[in-house]
What we know:
The complex is a heterodimer of chains A (449) and B (357).
Chain A lengths: L6 E8 L5 H10 L6 E6 L10 E5 L3 E2 L10 E2 H11 L7 E5 L6 H10 L1 H6 E11 L3 H7 L1 H9 L2 E5 L6 H14 L4 E4 L18 H7 L12 E7 L2 E7 L6 E8 L5 H15 L4 E3 L10 E5 L6 E7 L3 E7 L9 E4 L4 E3 L3 E4 L10 E9 L4 H15 L3 E8 L6 E8 L2 E9 L6 E9 L3 H9 L4
Parallel strand pairs in A: 1-6, 1-7, 2-3, 2-6, 7-8, 8-9, 13-14
Antiparallel strand pairs in A: 4-5, 10-16, 10-19, 11-15, 11-17, 12-14, 12-16, 17-18, 20-24, 21-22, 21-24, 22-23
Chain B lengths: L9 E2 L1 E8 L4 E7 L4 E6 L4 E5 L5 E5 L7 E6 L5 E6 L3 E6 L5 E6 L5 E6 L5 E6 L2 E6 L4 E4 L9 E6 L2 E6 L2 E6 L4 E7 L4 E6 L5 E6 L3 E6 L5 E4 L8 E4 L5 E5 L4 E5 L11 E3 L6 E6 L5 E6 L3 E7 L5 E8 L4 E6 L5 E6 L3 E7 L12
Antiparallel strand pairs in B: 1-30, 2-33, 3-4, 4-5, 5-6, 7-8, 8-9, 9-10, 11-12, 12-13, 13-14, 15-16, 16-17, 17-18, 19-20, 20-21, 21-22, 23-24, 24-25, 25-26, 27-28, 28-29, 29-30, 31-32, 32-33
Amino acid sequence: xxxxxxxxxxxxxxxxxxxxxxxxxxxxxxxxxxxxxxxxxxxxxxxxxxxxxxxxxxxxxxxxxxxxxxxxxxxxxxxxxxxxxxxxxxxxxxxxxxxxxxxxxxxxxxxxxxxxxxxxxxxxxxxxxxxxxxxxxxxxxxxxxxxxxxxxxxxxxxxxxxxxxxxxxxxxxxxxxxxxxxxxxxxxxxxxxxxxxxxxxxxxxxxxxxxxxxxxxxxxxxxxxxxxxxxxxxxxxxxxxxxxxxxxxxxxxxxxxxxxxxxxxxxxxxxxxxxxxxxxxxxxxxxxxxxxxxxxxxxxxxxxxxxxxxxxxxxxxxxxxxxxxxxxxxxxxxxxxxxxxxxxxxxxxxxxxxxxxxxxxxxxxxxxxxxxxxxxxxxxxxxxxxxxxxxxxxxxxxxxxxxxxxxxxxxxxxxxxxxxxxxxxxxxxxxxxxxxxxxxxxxxxxxxx
Amino acid sequence: xxxxxxxxxxxxxxxxxxxxxxxxxxxxxxxxxxxxxxxxxxxxxxxxxxxxxxxxxxxxxxxxxxxxxxxxxxxxxxxxxxxxxxxxxxxxxxxxxxxxxxxxxxxxxxxxxxxxxxxxxxxxxxxxxxxxxxxxxxxxxxxxxxxxxxxxxxxxxxxxxxxxxxxxxxxxxxxxxxxxxxxxxxxxxxxxxxxxxxxxxxxxxxxxxxxxxxxxxxxxxxxxxxxxxxxxxxxxxxxxxxxxxxxxxxxxxxxxxxxxxxxxxxxxxxxxxxxxxxxxxxxxxxxxxxxxxxxxxxxxxxxxxxxxxxxxxxxxxxxxxxxxxxxxxxxxxxxxxxxxxxxxxxxxxxxxxxxxx
Lengths: 449, 357
């Protein structure tokens, strides 16, 4: 049976009061033409309006080896086992977990039980978050952090109860914990049905399409603009923004291709590592230096760019141009010069929470044996703390890329599309608690050929 | 089904009859001493066929709202019980299918039904509780809550009932209301079979192993290496061979001599997809297996558990259940498409009669 013939399953999780039942009722009452079976725990918050609802006990089984990474849900196996026999009647299964439940054993059931995994495929994990209360919960309970870590989609619910600024801060905190997740804001759990069903959450291509930067290394700058400038005097003009200063590196002869931009970014990272020289408004911006623009004054502030002969300059800025409405203006003509190319980068964040995500991206092939040994050891030592893994790998000698995904210690890998002319590379994402990024990257690097 | 060519009965399987029920057939059994064959489908349809011809005798639809989960035919073959997602058990008459008694056990699924060998008691498992009723539906005993949902029940002798749940097997004396024995093992026990003398308790576990205990000595052992969870177990009538399966292979452990500890099990590899039902014949070392690939095979086994196929047929789709007629002269298989196949089974020894009359 191919993966497409399997019935997709969405796990719906979230703390008590986060709006799971409201979302379920929305999904069930919407005109979507799907026949959805809902499996919910015995202690559901409120009744479900319609649809097939099966009560399940909360029955988590540890295996005899005592490994808590390999737990499964007995109730779910029984209920799905029975649904399997009536599968012509269902297109989709939704499993709602209780507010305090760890989504792990639910997700693991789809890896551990061969009968279940032969008929059903875990399509994704949707976590509802109560925007007004999650901040306190994240600090207090492990379960809420884990629910965030497991999520393919985070529905940030009850946004009407919270200010925009607080939402931005919360979103960035959640994003730090789980870089792969898609965050959707909602009032009263009002989200389009396609945001929670048919996610194909383990399809890394889709994730990359949605968030092209999620696997990238973090940079000390968020934005690059490349400007094509003739000889002459220019002003870099900034309005008031969120910060009284902003770091910047200006590079001469900056190319516009992705590769050239990445080269420029690498050079800028090295320059950013050096101490910044502070520039007051009206000062001239030097090339190839780390500088810090003073932006304390009210109103517009201008800094000078002197161009001796026509060239492309790249501005690598700590914040995005939009935040300061930053413009390049040709002084004598008072004319704005638009950028030719812009590029956003994954900015460095402070990691306050224990739960976080790590991405590894490397070009080239890996030695399958070395990778197995490394991955096996990593997951057996850290499996309890690694909630999710996803990625694809280039095995040496294999024309197809290998796609894998896992929950705790359990993971599956299967051959995917052929590499063809694409550059062979490896992308891995780990989400978990107290992960050592450097150690993991070094471990992976040793598997490369 | 992939890789499987439909084929007509071969070897000791001979043409019998076929019929159809309304939905995925999950339970079946012979009643009226083999004169009748009853099939239950997942939607709650129950159908009684004439054992020799397949002619429909009676049928009922929607006996359990939400669906049927289990069926058990009384050893005398005059009555049978069914249970479902509605939390009910119905005891019915085999001749007309008429309901004699409905037992309402609450909202939990009723997943397991077993008549005691003497037919005096019906054991029923629903969620964490096990109930015992008599033939006419009077309640005789209720267990305390088990630590988790009861995954299997079976009678060891007249008054003793064994239950399996996560982490343990318990033996209850249901007449004197006491616990005779508890066998503990941390693991999710998904199936249970007792040897005919009740001494050996074999359980399939979620973590792809079979755990068994000998009650007389208190010894226990674990058989690992299964590629899938061994949800199908069957003892032969002498209790010397235990057939187990958690994949497309059948592994047979022999308890002869010092076995099975330290011995190599027999292996039967006839199917291309995992086994979905497994049953020893009522007499003799003949085991029948049905698979998700739709094939049904019967194999004669040797003392070491190895054996050769002696008959095979293609049932068309995932085999939901198989059942030997009480005299072993016919084998029935029901499948996921609701197709019922009954083949004559002709053996060439004097121990068996010669098939249909």
